[in-house]
Amino acid sequence: MQSHNLRLLAGAVLTAGLLAGCGQPAELSRDQYLELKSEILRPPGEVIPKIIFPFKVLTMLIGDDSFFRIDAYYPERRLYGFGGVIYRGLKLRTARIVCHSRGISFSSYNHAHKKYSLSGLTYKEAVDESIRLARLLMMDRKKYGKESSNPEIEEKSARLNLELEGVYYEDMFLIKVDGQGKTEIYISPPYECISFADVKDSIQVDPYRLVRIMPEPQTPAEELFDIAAQIKGARRVIVSDSLYHYYEVFAAVYPLSDLDTLDSDPGVFRSDCREINAFIHIKTIDTVYFNGKLVDDCTLKSLLDRSESGISVVVAVDSTVECGKIIETLKLIKDDLGPVGNRVFIIPYSIIEGHEPRLDTRFIPE
Q1: Angle at 109 (CA atoms; ends 103, 112), nearest 5 degrees
Q2: Fewest CB within a 10 Å sphere: which of 10, 56, 289, 325?
Q3: HSE-CB of 353 using CA atoms within 13 angstroms
Q4: Mutual angle of helices 297-305 and 323-337, in 10-degree steps
């Protein structure tokens, strides 16, 4: 009887252990997630041999090591031969081994990725979606040539590649922001996730280090200004749409550079020492004013087309305007006036309402 009871007790303990193991994965904090993500993007030296050993054997057998040279600009390369299968295996194996080396379950990281990443996907889902988008791009290019017919797929693929591969540009900070204001910040080199505090510390040392702000199209303009407020000392700031087929414009975003005086002096653009040639007010997605006149996109493009290059442009936006509309306007400024010699100021309209800049319109057509 006693033996029977012991067996029942042992079974109960085992069952409880199994049930506990089947529970929800431990929840990671955002800091824990970012630290793990940085190591997965750039695995510590001691775990690399464990990660690549089976794949090295496989490449020796199939004679193809192209997946070791994944390029963010050409994600379809991961489809060569067994590329899709190999890429998936490499990414998941890397994540599992790094998590295990830190005493954290992969399941916990997988769910944290869904909670904290801008894609809103688990790590497994993000890897699979990246491969799916790469295949779509490859088929698209086979059908239409080098340029894809679907920029939306290019955009999604670029942002997901960044999430999985890190930054491929030298010496810059990249700040991604989604429609709800959630941010991810990367530094290159060494291709890792960091915080705003890290950016501030680095900018204090080198204010001319490049900062790229990449908002989702639906991000409200007020989020763009909130980000700028956290990196006030930065002197070289680019606003762009994506990394794959991107437009970029160097811009002074309020309160960056010398725009932090607007709070105390809304009429700063009226000073004699500053020449402003064009004033664009974006009120809503369909309501845009150019030098006080209501214009549509075609008229705005025509006016910028006929303006001389090298002019200074103030783009004032209402807080609810989406960044997608700002990017569209910046595209017109860059395409029609050229990337060099233009000074672009992006500011909240509410700050200068009633204090619109004094304009020098000699270089602007009527």
Answers
A1: 135
A2: 10
A3: 9
A4: 30
Q: What's the rounded Cα separation, in Å, for the pair 102 and 250?
A: 40
Banded model confidence at residue 274, pLDDT cuts 50, 70, 90: low
Question: Which DSSP string do the residues of 6-51 spell out, in sequence order?
Answer: HHHHHHHHHHHHHHHHTSPPPPPPHHHHHHHHHHHHS--TTTHHHH
The amino acid at residue 102 is: R
Interacting residues of 102 by C-beta distance below 8 A, sequence separation 6+: 36, 39
Per-residue tokens: 236: 């070289």
- The CA distance from 343 to 274, in Å, is 11
| Alpha helices, DSSP H, located in the chain | 2-21, 30-41, 48-62, 83-101, 106-116, 123-144, 151-165, 196-205, 221-229, 297-305, 323-337, 349-352
The torsion angle over the Cα atoms of residues 226, 232, 235 and 239, rounded to 10 degrees, is -10
For residue 284, count other CB atoms closer than 10 A to its CB.
12
Q: Which pLDDT score is estimated for 282? A: 94
**AA identity, residue 87:** Y
Q: By the 8 A CB rule, do 95 and 40 touch? A: yes
- Beta strands 293-295 and 287-290: pairing type? antiparallel
Q: Is the dihedral of CA 256, 258, 264, 267 positive or negative?
A: negative
Give burial (CB, 10 Å; 0-12/13-18/19+) of 8: exposed
Q: Determine if the peptide bond prior to 357 is cis (ω within 30°).
A: no
Q: Write down the pLDDT at residue 315.
A: 92
Parse the chain into domains and list their residue ranges.
30-165, 172-352
Q: What is the pLDDT of residues 207-220, one digit of tens each?
A: 888 888 988 888 89
Single out the residue of 356, 143, 155, 352 nearest to residue 263, CA to CA.
352
- The 10 Å Cβ neighbour count of residue 32 is 17
